[in-house]
Amino acid sequence: MSSTRPNQLFRNKSAKIAAIPMIVTALLVFVGGTIWTVVYSFTNSGLLPRLQWVGLDQYERLWTTRKWLVSIENLAIYGLCMLVLVFVIGFILAALIDQKIRFEDTIRTVILYPYALSFVVTGLVWQWMLNPEFGVQKVVRGWGWESFTFDPLYSADIAIYGVLIAGIWQGSGLVMVLMLAGLRGIDQDVWKASRVDGIPTWKAYIFVIIPMMRPVFVTTLVIVVTGIVKIYDLIVAQTGGGPGISTEVPAKYVYDMMFQANNLGQGFAASTMMLVTVALIVIPWAILEFGGSKHRD
Amino acid sequence: MKLTTKLLTATAIVAASGAFAEDLEVMHWWTSGGEAAAVGELAKAFDATGNKWVDAAIAGGDAARAVMVSRLTGGDPMGAFQFNHGRQAEELIEAGLLRDITDIAEAEGWTDIINPPSLLESCTVDGRIYCAPVNIHSWQWLWLSHKAYDDAGLDVPTNWDEYVASASALNDAGKLPLAMGQQGWQQRGLFNTLFAALVPNEVFLAVYDDKDADVAAGADVARVFAAAADAREMASNSTVQNWNDATNLVITGQAGGQIMGDWAQGEFAVAEQVAGTDYSCLPGLGVTELLSTGGDAFYFPVLTDEAQIAAQSELAALMLRPDTQVAFNLAKGSLPVRGDIDLSAANDCMQKGLALLADGAILPDTAQLITPDTADQISTLFIEFFADSSITVEDAQVQFASIIATAR
User: In A, residues 32-61, which contact B (CB 8 Å cutoff)?
Assistant: First the structure.
């Protein structure tokens, strides 16, 4: 087939040459590093990597360690709540701002500001906000509601939700801005048509506008999900994994194992499991999203 | 030809003199008030040799160790660094990253002066010496605030049982009975202190040295866990994180006591408290008077620059000289590594420690017996145990025994 046309390989020659450094970097650093990590997760590497095979021992230990199981559970709770809430809050804020209100720029900036802060600052700010002696609880009690109690970070059962509050505060501004861009991309004629047909605004949003915003939703989803999986600094700054081990997360488990326990093998096994989890979510999605794209173009 | 000869001569002179001022970067995690004062003494002594101590302090042992190891393995070694000697550095030595300082040790006669000898043994791998021990630290101390007990109208306890008995009265007086930082290493240390003080040494060694899981699951260790549950009860309102913040609660009389190593002594000294009148110290919790002999040591990475190597040698030799030992240990509240120096300037608590050391009432430190991996597992167990009072003593002991069973 290709013999009838110029060789595909040599089309856009300059573009391909320009991409070579990036391709080499990606292969060497990302793929190479990943393979190296997976290989060494089957060894008993301690402080330094060494090739002494122990089979699946590291994985057996991983899945019998309570700290790891708690980490996975926390990531699931945090991830699911974060995903749903940040989308709902972000979209509602965007829809409200899209009502041609006054001072839109100011409000948009104020809501986006938390995103400009690092997770470390966010974590520390909310550690103080949720501290019963300085923060929200103290303020509300000062207003006269003496029995008011709000100290999620000091109770092991709900501490992860205290982290969630900080995560949402930081992340919803970005979602709002992305959604707002999506809403602005909708042709005004669509709105006019829906009004002519007498469709209520909320119905127009759910059945017409949101389906039209699919590309924006996909982009936002990728940004939010990657942020969730790699969560580490927020935990370290806000709770340090405590109280007890109630807010541990997988990335922190990996760090603790590699740099505190001097057990690289265990850390590699944990990071391999994180990779597998991400791959299980991303690969089916990527196939759905991009696999059938050829006939669409 | 002539130029080459000149250059060669010049190099020879530089190499031979060795007295050239050289900047040596020293990494450590001594950042609290007492610790910083102690490290200042070392720096002063080193600067007096004409070299320059470049201070690279990182707060928190765990964070500091991570940075040190990644700089060593990443090929960017510092001049010298502090470590708790024992099994932490094992692999770095095996990988050939650390300098063999046997020649300095022999020239200075370390084998004759270091007491107890186990300190130097911890620095020794296959007959070669890799580190310079600078002090002895022991964990087995109970610090009690006289002010807290006066305020509550109680006598200051003289042992662990009296202390536990006084807890409810302290609570009623609005005092925190036991100050405890919410960090794994502190909670593990507290448990190991109870372990060393409340049951016979054989049990301690059977668990940590022989890794005998049956002993770890037995009745003796159950007593230790019961005491740990008491401690959990007494510290249930303690929310501080850092050990020196907890010590500060004792200094200001807000808390009755704290179980912490002798480095807490440095904080009392900075606050100008007097042992015996402002605070009491009970080695071995007043039950079994003994000390574990862990400590700090300095390691020297393998370097290629001759002048840097010379500066390393000077620093290593200097650290064990009598003057440095006295100045450093008085500031830090730790015990000197040599028994032949005059420490009459030491206060009550340090004198108690020196006496125990002279009597040989000593135990090896857990850092010399178990790997960091095992230590981290035990820490995790106690982080959970102390944060969650619903974990029963029995469950915790079963988990502890299973950690010991898999320990290397």
Answer: 46-48, 61
